[in-house]
Structure prediction request, 898 residues.
Amino acid sequence: MQASRLPRYVDICVIPILNLLTALFVAGIIIAIIGENPFTALSVMLKGAFVYKGGLGYTLFYTTNFIFTGLAVAVAFHAMLFNIGGEGQAAMGGLGIGLVALSLGGILPVLVVIALAILGSALFGAIWGFIPGYLQAKRGSHIVITTIMFNFIASAIMVWLLAGMLMAPNQMSPETISFQNGVMLWQFHDILNRLGFDIGRSPLNLSFVLALICCFLVWLLIWRTHLGYRIRATGFSPKASTYAGYKPETIIIITMAISGALAGMMAVNEILGVQHRVILNFTSGYGFTGIAVALMGRNHPLGIIFASLLFGALFQGGAELDFEFQTITRDMVVMIQGLIILFSGALAYMFNPMLEKLFLNEERLKEPNND
Amino acid sequence: MKKKILEQKNGGQKSPFAVSLKSICKSFGPVRANDEICLNVSSGTIHGIIGENGAGKSTLMSILYGFYQPDSGDIQVDGKAAIFKQPSDAIRLGIGMVHQHFMLVPNFTALENIILGSEGKMGLKNGLQNAKLKLEELKSTYGLEVDLDNVTEDLPVGIQQRIEILKALYRGARVLILDEPTGVLTPQETDQLFEILLALKSEGVTILLITHKLHEIMAITDEVSVMRQGKMVANTLTKKTSPEWLAEQMVGRSVLVNTKYESGKVGSVALSADGIGVTDKRGFDSLKNATFDLRSGEILGIAGIAGNGQSELLSVLSGITPPSRGNFRINDKIFDSKNHCSPGLMRELGLSHVPEDRHAEGLVLPFQAFESVILGYEKNPSFGTGFFTKPEQIQAHCARLQDSFDVRPQNPTLISSQFSGGNQQKLVLSREISSAPKILLVGQPTRGVDIGAIEFIHKTLIKMRDSGCAILLVSVELEEILSLSDRILVMNSGEIMGIVSKANTTKAMLGKMMAGIPLEKAIEEKN
Prediction:
């Protein structure tokens, strides 16, 4: 990877904001075409995401999902691995939680079960990242292909289990029985209610705190540990890594396991936080959106928190748009989200050459004698 | 018959030179890859261009077949000025290129590959039939035996190369450029290639042969040009020259600090190699039966033209690749193909390694200097505790190293790629020396390094030697080897040609050994 020649603040702040504004501009044009006022729509979105009762809670709930899947993509990316398998790893994480909660619930104390369930999600996700990592390192199977295929395998396994041996009896939907009472993460509106504050109901739960802790741990791992050093060295230069004696194969496998574990923990938010049972398709695309989140957050935990917040607000505000306007349907909202992913993900570096010209010219003007 | 066609194409206008280049310059950023290159290639001859890796041969040929455009200078084909904007312009004027790495579609048949890009209009079948007829004619004219209907990836590399040659001829090439054509061939395939080249020559085709192998130049070329560091340094008829002279021309560096250092006090054996051999993935023996002792307090220089097994030797001794045969010992520890060694273990045994390629191996270019300066040593307790690294301590360590090795700018947080070549090399050297090694392997310590830094690096190596370190110095700069080494080991084609002490040798003798003449014979010839 070539180091950017732009000042750091431009790389971190100006470019993402520029990308976001471009996306909103294009979305605004489309909203205008269908006959609505883009500014009214924007204000409805913002209010829905942050102001209306419970809106902020929903936004942060979605944010939690994006933090986990975004971190997963980012960690893999530091070793130059493109983990597209967040979706499957999260689904397997959900399975891990389900197996722990259903088999140990009632036998062990509730808090222990919760802790083991969280570990279970990380472990199952890690296994689902480990296998493609192993195949990449030892067999040369391309990580992008294998992780995509593992999404399908995970999805098939979930259908097979939830419509089969794990299916709750005497009903028709593909889901497990509910976990034992208390095997769940507390939701914020409950906690605050007991303290005497009234905020609107929302699924926001303690997983949000777990997500923030993971952000810190990932930062620690990547920039403050031997392993993180080796991961980055391997990502930038496999040859230098071999010279130093790090064994790139091992690094690839370990990194993919860590990445899978992070994606797997997304299930904690959905399953332990809200559903309290394992259902089908709870991952609903968060794994893929994690790629855009990591790109926009420049693979740094702090950037990922902000990018996740943006996508969380989009999800929640988008739902509000659908509710408020007759002409703006659910599909329209998906389109706006798609535009943002397009401009901040796929076209993330579109403005780089332009800005580079601008800034380098300016520098040259400032120091005319500096050759 | 072909000859007649060629003469007709020339339209009677005779120029003695098929190709002539005048003052060609080409720079990539600050690097002058080609500096005022002049070259005249006589029609119907085989013209060799020899030089080390990075001497600018490939750049020059890329200009000649239109892949790069020169910054300045003129190209003439058959005495007429020509401007190549893209490779198709060169092909139109009859200049064809056979690349070092073949440009073939692996799952196409030979025929499909040859006509790729000139397959005619709609309806492939007619085109294929016509092409086949034309190719059969070419095949019989030049003795290029290829079964056109075989799938390319199933064919041996020698045949794949013939396909490349046919492809160029099919497009009407009268000048063929071959870039390191024998690098991937077995000796038998090489002989067959040479026969083909001679057949081509006898039919009037002009051939430009790029290589760094001296015996090929001597075996087949009519004229030879030597390139060194982007400049054309010599131009002569092959029969008027000798491999020794060419070797000297290739490796000499005109401006090198020419200090002769005193010999050191030699101590006990620090590393002893016994019959080390390396067989690479292609089954080629790139290192054969290397046996020698390295003693503390001496610098053992490894001389040789690049690519003659020196890199493999460094790779084995530093623990990166295990030897295929033989063993080497450090203290009482023996390492061979079974008893595996790793770079980490070697460091623990007090062996440091300054790699030949500082960009790809020695540094992680996107890393900040302080991160690059602990590559391989990040677990050292003074850089952190437990699993964790302490950036502040590492930065302080880096600042100290930058100060004592005079690395400029003295900034531990600057990205490694933003230092100049000399300063990058000082960073690598400082890292490897700061662990106080007992054995130091050094590969090309001054490649692409400015004069000031060269002197500093040389003095540092001598200081290390005087403090009792055993140093193995691999360099393609003969002057550097002669200036620093106590003993000199010469390699050719993966074999050791001999080990001589500096006092008992001359540049000419080393040149002979580098050209593949063993020590005993070289001495005989001298007397």
About this structure: Residues 1-12 of chain B have pLDDT under 50 and may be disordered. The first strand of chain B starts at residue 17 and ends at 28. Residues 269-350+437-526 of chain B form a domain with the Rossmann fold fold (CATH 3.40.50.300).
